User: What shape does this take?
Amino acid sequence: MKVCKFGGSSLADAGQVAKVCDIVMSDPDRRLVVVSAPGKRHKQDIKVTDLLIACANARLDGKPTADALEAVVARYRAIQEELGVDPAVIDTIRENLFETLGGNIEHRERFMDAMKAAGEDNSARLVAAELQRRGETARYQNPGEAGLLLSGEYGNARLLHESYDNLARLREADGITVFPGFFGYTREGEVVTFPRGGSDITGSILAAAVKAELYENFTDVDSVCAVDPDLASDVQPITEITYREMRELSYAGFGVLHDEAIIPAVHAGIPIRICNTNRPELPGTLIMSEREVTHGTVVGIAGSSGFCTVFASKYLMNREVGFGRRFLQFFEEEGLSFEHMPSGVDNISIILREEELDESTEARIVAHIRDELGADSVSVEHGLALVMIVGEGMRYTVGVSRRATAALSKADVNIEMINQGSSEISIMFGVKEADRTSAMRALYNEFFEQG
Ligand code: ASP
Assistant: This one.
């Protein structure tokens, strides 16, 4: 059995939905299909999920919403009409969307998640109806009825482990099951979503639950590339990559697969294939536990902006037992999760995502560190980007960081921070946001173009 997941661009219009159904029907093992909400049809277009978020915000602000929601219905209707699917499905979709929009708004996040989830939910109804029209035994599966249970962290849910046993039953289902991505239910029966792009996570969870032989993730690129293809010409495709490499690269900015989607597949030992809905015959990229390290030391280079550092120094910090714990505690008390923690003899720093730290939280944290820990200096630096080079082969190769730092210096990029060693397969550089693309270009040039 294969689990295949189709991203938003694969469901954007009737032509794309037809390709999805062709792909599913071309292999009898493709029995569990996970779908995103319809995405962009062209560059300026708006994803259905974003249209739904706008509708939800309008309702929360007491503004009119009916026209905006009709525009969402129209996205589904255009697909239904062009494919000739039974129009009854549009009545169901319309009813579902209006009912969700009219829901209780006392709990804002809960309402927002219900609205966001409606995009994939209705996508699944439509795809199931199209497969039925083509004569397949296909059915829409509600995630709650299948037992996909998640934590009550709205917009950022995590899987509850008991879901695996519930979802394993999907293996026995007849015909093709079409399952909406991106959301599940709390134990109390409320809809709750994963982070944005979370349909990838749903696909991976289902693949693990039914012990699929393969998790196919269909998107709109031929394969994962060694660097963002906008940054260089003829960027090298990656044919094989390990879970660990992919997890690090996704975390650091590779947009093809959600970084949290790797874990369920890893635990169940299921390979993931990234492939293109528009060219399904191509091999794509295979993500698996081991690969032969033949094509160089570095497999990919990723980078992302939007980080900041909180830096503290205190003379003889190294001898003060409990300093690190108390330092971290301030962040925990504010509910902040941090990304990295480089430290020195008398100093310590925490790297966070900018979105985590608003002005008043920042002021409180700085005051705590200064007053309660007696730090000699505390500062916060904004506008940081993290750039990462990743490759299993780096473990065995001498001189990778020398080559990387030399390339960055040649490109006139000042390195604010280096983190090497915590992970054997990556080196991370902190640079100014303005230097992110030149840093990535310089590293790509060094490791891929120069050999
Ligand atoms: N539709 C959701 C989003 O735009 C989830 C997904 O496509 O994976 O983030």
In short: The chain has a mean pLDDT of 95. The domain at 300-449 is CATH 3.30.2130.10 (VC0802-like). Residues 7-8, 36-37, 47, 49, 119-120, 181-182, 196-199 surround aspartic acid (CB under 6 Å). The chain is about 40% helix and 20% strand.
